Amino acid sequence: MLAYLVKRVFQAIAVMFAISLIGFAIQDNLGDPLRELVGQSVSEEVRQQLRDELGLNDSFVTQYVRFLGNALQGDLGTSYFFKEPALDVILKKLPATLELVMGATLIIVGLSVPLGVYTAIKPNTILSRLIMGISIVGISVPVFLTAILMIFVFSVELGWFPSYGRGDVVHVFGYWDTNFATADGWVHILLPSVALASIMLPLFVRLIRAEMMEVLQSEYVKYARAKGIRPYRIYFIHALKNTLLPVITVGGVQIGTMVAYTILTETVFQWPGMGFMFLEAVNRVDTPLIVAYLIIVGFIFVVTNTIVDLIYGLVNPTVNIARMGA
Amino acid sequence: MKHFASTLAVATLTATLSTAAMAEVTIKVAYDADPVSLDPHEQLSGGTLQLSHMVFDPLVRWTKDLQFAPRLAESWEQIDDTTMRFKLRDGVTFHSGNALTSADVDWTFDRLKASPDFKGIFAPFTDVEVVDELTFDLKTSEPYPLVLHTATYIFPMDSQFYSGTTEDGKDKAELVKHGDSFASRNLSGTGPFTVTEREQGVKVIFDRFDGYWDTASEGNVDKIILTPIKEDPTRVAALLAGDVDFIAPVPPTDLKRVEEHDGTTLITEPGTRIITFQLNQNRVEAFKDARVRKAIDYAVNNAGIVDRIMRGFGTVGAQASPAGYLGYDESLTPRFDVEKAKALMAEAGYADGFSVTMMAPNNRYVNDDKIAQAVASMLAKINIKVDLQTMPKAQYWPTFDERAADMMMIGWHADTEDSANFHQFLTHCPDEATGNGQYNSGNYCNPEADALMAEANATTDQTKRGELLRKLEGILYEEAAFIPLHWQNLAWGARDGVHAEKIVNALNFPYFGDLKVD
């Protein structure tokens, strides 16, 4: 177990190094940050001078080595737009994004299990067909379209929910302000969470349904039925347990993907998280912030994947951990 | 009951504290971007100027019909060829409580001269000479016709407030681009509002300054909450849902929606930013021939583009200067005649046409990529085959600097609100030493036109100057130096009861201090 852990940590470090190199290499193709920092009529001469001051005229290797040296000391550069260390900017935006992901996760967990189980047990009812039909639509409609549609229906036409922003937040600690402490916060987080969940929820409903149907065909379920155990006990105690194991694994990996999807959701809802910040940074050619974002999101991916692998090994001891690491 | 009692107590207290116990007027405003910094000299951009008009105040400012109105300067007179004497308004105080004097103007002027973004505009100016507490002379090296135009950029800063050092030993006056400075986070101006809270990219809160000098203004807004909402559909939805009271800009696709929706008003004005194409004579031999350039101008249907792509939300143009500018010549009308274009091509020996490359941004100007596509298909009718490439502005500008295509799109708004500025940057013979022709990707060069601009810029007699600039526009039109398309219109959306139509202008900095809300 320990050897496996060490191995995974080394792998993670190698991946982080690769991400930083790629992130740094693409920044030259993102455009000229100076264009965003100065007015249109500023002369080329002045711009060159500012480029020198920013160190943008140094060679790639010089810039990368300087970046890496600073990064190892926890300094990922200073955002041009926010005028603050890029790491601080992202850490300040992180809670908003995590709360959004949390909201979406709650919706996914709360709905996917009952819906998945129901459609597996009663696959031929009208309701099941309806659920499966909607789930196809859910998977195919892009998040930003769902989001804009929801704004127009629930904010503009019906006026039930606010159209943008986080609303009243309550300070918890450090950079953490929470939406979950006030009614206004709840009202604000609902639409964005549903939008973000819309892409993952159908996936999980279908996954749970497929797994459940498979389990229901297995020998031990048949045996339990033959023994006369009540159906609901079979479904929810015996079958569901075995259904959820692969679902949890997929779920852990999908959390990382969900962080990526927040870029679209946050942009449409003007949600002040780090996905929205990233898209803005790309538009502004705020290169230090872009690179820092890539590194941190890469880090989240790497960490969640590692943890998921470890948990999987713990939950299901039949998996040979030593071999997984090889 | 207890709750009621405390409410009553607070109400009584408020009533006794303020002589006029009126309800506070708060409005929520959503723009597509927020100002990059609180330092008015850090970046010359629309966002900065909008902010400056809210928290600082200029010496003079533009009126709706592009005339000058006195603000902090009460009056001015030309005392010799190179000196304009200004008299400051008496009794104006900064947010810090300091009184505004000539010394503040002098201090601000020196800072402007040192700002990378602003020093270009202030290049013709040599000095501010303080005459007395409220009188100062603004001096130029040569007779210069744009003294008042430039005075609209002088927003006096509180020299006492910005002097000295911060706790960590930095100079408070320091002007840092893209850096953390005292001025980028603190401010003291003479404007109608002060910034009380700011979270960059999320919101800015403005509170009315109690000591504001302009008590004659009918403005009654006590608090403004500015939220940047970049996404067009979200911004419009926020207005329609009643979550905000005023938005800018309204995208062309939603004009009708805002206009027809109950409870919201659409306000539009012709803008002053011209959208053009430049024809690179260094890359394409045929573009050296004025007949070919004219043929292209004849082939492009400006009115059609405005009508269909811009949904009527632009003003068809045939020159760089918009109406109201000195150089504007109403006799220059858009050319559109495909037959004539074909004839000109044949006359120049290009009846069979040729192929060119074209580049345009896809997120800089309104519908920029669609406009470029339309122009490309229009040119196909006169046998010019266009290979079009569009890209985000971040990538576009470096490409533009390299002059990487035969035809390139560029839009321009004159920082000086003056016709000569268009020529200086867009069509003047490129000259690295002076910076003239910096955005002339067409490499059009006409010494006669340049001489006219030089003469105009040394003529202080406005009537004579107008003649020179009109002549200049006439030459560029006759030579088809570039392909003018249209001026982008401006659009704002407001909730009913927000009388925004009185405070908006073609320059796109609404005077929120004068905003009246029912």
TrEMBL record, chain A:
<feature type="transmembrane region" description="Helical">
    <location>
        <begin position="100"/>
        <end position="118"/>
    </location>
</feature>
<dbReference type="InterPro" id="IPR035906">
    <property type="entry name" value="MetI-like_sf"/>
</dbReference>
<comment type="similarity">
    <text>Belongs to the binding-protein-dependent transport system permease family.</text>
</comment>
<dbReference type="Pfam" id="PF00528">
    <property type="entry name" value="BPD_transp_1"/>
</dbReference>
<keyword id="KW-0472">Membrane</keyword>
<feature type="domain" description="ABC transmembrane type-1">
    <location>
        <begin position="94"/>
        <end position="312"/>
    </location>
</feature>
<feature type="transmembrane region" description="Helical">
    <location>
        <begin position="290"/>
        <end position="315"/>
    </location>
</feature>
<dbReference type="Pfam" id="PF19300">
    <property type="entry name" value="BPD_transp_1_N"/>
</dbReference>
<dbReference type="GO" id="GO:0005886">
    <property type="term" value="C:plasma membrane"/>
</dbReference>
<keyword id="KW-1133">Transmembrane helix</keyword>
<dbReference type="GO" id="GO:0055085">
    <property type="term" value="P:transmembrane transport"/>
</dbReference>
<dbReference type="InterPro" id="IPR000515">
    <property type="entry name" value="MetI-like"/>
</dbReference>
<keyword id="KW-0813">Transport</keyword>
<keyword id="KW-0812">Transmembrane</keyword>
<feature type="transmembrane region" description="Helical">
    <location>
        <begin position="243"/>
        <end position="264"/>
    </location>
</feature>
<feature type="transmembrane region" description="Helical">
    <location>
        <begin position="130"/>
        <end position="154"/>
    </location>
</feature>
<keyword id="KW-1003">Cell membrane</keyword>
<feature type="transmembrane region" description="Helical">
    <location>
        <begin position="9"/>
        <end position="26"/>
    </location>
</feature>
<feature type="transmembrane region" description="Helical">
    <location>
        <begin position="185"/>
        <end position="205"/>
    </location>
</feature>
<protein>
    <submittedName>
        <fullName>Dipeptide transport system permease protein DppB</fullName>
    </submittedName>
</protein>
<keyword id="KW-0614">Plasmid</keyword>
<dbReference type="InterPro" id="IPR045621">
    <property type="entry name" value="BPD_transp_1_N"/>
</dbReference>
From TrEMBL, chain B:
<dbReference type="InterPro" id="IPR030678">
    <property type="entry name" value="Peptide/Ni-bd"/>
</dbReference>
<keyword id="KW-0614">Plasmid</keyword>
<feature type="domain" description="Solute-binding protein family 5">
    <location>
        <begin position="68"/>
        <end position="431"/>
    </location>
</feature>
<keyword id="KW-0732">Signal</keyword>
<comment type="similarity">
    <text>Belongs to the bacterial solute-binding protein 5 family.</text>
</comment>
<protein>
    <submittedName>
        <fullName>Periplasmic dipeptide transport protein (Dipeptide-binding protein) (DBP)</fullName>
    </submittedName>
</protein>
<dbReference type="Pfam" id="PF00496">
    <property type="entry name" value="SBP_bac_5"/>
</dbReference>
<feature type="signal peptide">
    <location>
        <begin position="1"/>
        <end position="23"/>
    </location>
</feature>
<keyword id="KW-0813">Transport</keyword>
<dbReference type="InterPro" id="IPR000914">
    <property type="entry name" value="SBP_5_dom"/>
</dbReference>
<dbReference type="InterPro" id="IPR039424">
    <property type="entry name" value="SBP_5"/>
</dbReference>
